[in-house]
Amino acid sequence: MIAPYINIYRTKGAFKFSLAAFIARMPISMMSIAIVFVIVAKTDSYALAGTFTAIGALMAAFVAPFWSRAADRYGQSRILAIAVPIHISALLGFLTVIRLDAPRWSWFVLLIIFEGVFVGTGQMVRRRWSHVLNGDSKLMNTAYSVESLLDEIVFMVGPIITTLCAINVGPYAGVLAAAIFLSIGSILFIAQKGTEPMPHPKIKGVKHKNPIFTLEVQAIFLPFIFTGASFAAIGLIVVAYADQYGAKSQTGLLYAIWALGSLIAAFINGAQHWKISAKSRYIFFTIALAIFTLPLLLAAKLFPGNLLMLSIALFLNGIFIAPLIVAGYTAAENLVEENQVTETLAWILSGLILGGALPGAITGHIIDTTGAQTAFIVPVIAMGISILTLIFYFKVWLNPRMK
């Protein structure tokens, strides 16, 4: 089972750029909670903190595909060398204006600036794998599974580091820790010149076609929005559920169990040589994830306060996350030319991020009025809509272009 992983890491430079990208994307699991610590420490307002994180997520989702298009066109290193210093500078400015109690509008301006130069290394490293492995479908499945596994580690470890820094050092320390990870990881990633894909400059007279306007990419992007909404709703409900039953200290453990299911699945998925296409796997795992969202609602309703039953339901749900994301990325990459891979992968990621910004208000309202156990209906409905979008694009899935 380990052999496929050994094979891909035998590729020259693969371990170095994969490790660098892992370090550089640690902030994706740290920044939101770090900002909450900063805003709450200054204003004692969770509502304001939630507004900042929501705006930040939406801004990052909006700009990521455009920065990724630039990376395809001008080169990954060049774009990172421009964007990361601006991001770090605006981030430090953001902390400064908060510390100096500057007008609130200045907080929002700097938030928009630093999120506006968010350049995701997640899609860049996947593009780099595609380049060094020459698009070999079997090896790519393993490589994408590696990155999904690393994503799960990021989301398990990042919030813990942020919380420890904010509590033991100071509220601003979490943001600074995220900035340090981004700086180190980006420098190391930029240094890997030998594995960087060649840029594809714009050809004069040839109009760029944004991949999101193609039905095939939309058929993956739209279901991912509601899948992301399901993830975000579950994350919020788990916190409220543990708090409701006097077990707030167990929240981290519940998150870890959820992520562990996905991590194990990512490892197994990467060792498989699938005989079915990426699009078939994407449809299958979307339906499977929807089905295994139901146990969360049943566990909360039938066994209220029983964290063991909820843990089992979370683990089962997590099993289908990584294989779904890997299949989605692979299916999307198969749709476009080499010069649009990074941009297309960024749109798929943006679908998850956009979805994450959707369910907060309604989920919070249900939690406040009827309890966290009832709120598990939100992710169930979100995944139901995700399946409906698959049906909406039924004819598109039959297209031979979808592989």
Can you give a write-up of this model?
The chain has 20 helices and no strands. The chain has 403 residues and is mostly helical. The longest helix has 32 residues, at 137-168. The protein starts with a helix and ends in a 6-residue tail after the last helix. The mean pLDDT is 87.
Supply database-style keywords.
single chain, mainly alpha, 20 helices
Topology:
Elements: H1 3-9, H2 14-24, H3 31-43, H4 46-74, H5 76-99, H6 104-116, H7 121-132, H8 137-168, H9 173-190, H10 215-244, H11 251-270, H12 278-291, H13 294-302, H14 307-318, H15 321-333, H16 341-356, H17 360-370, H18 372-375, H19 377-392, H20 394-397
Condensed summary:
It contains 20 helices and no strands. Helices cover 76% and strands 0% of the residues.
Name the poorly predicted regions. Answer: none
Q: Describe the oligomeric state of these chains in a short phrase.
A: single chain
Strand residue percentage: under 5%
Helix segment tally:
20
* Average pLDDT: 87
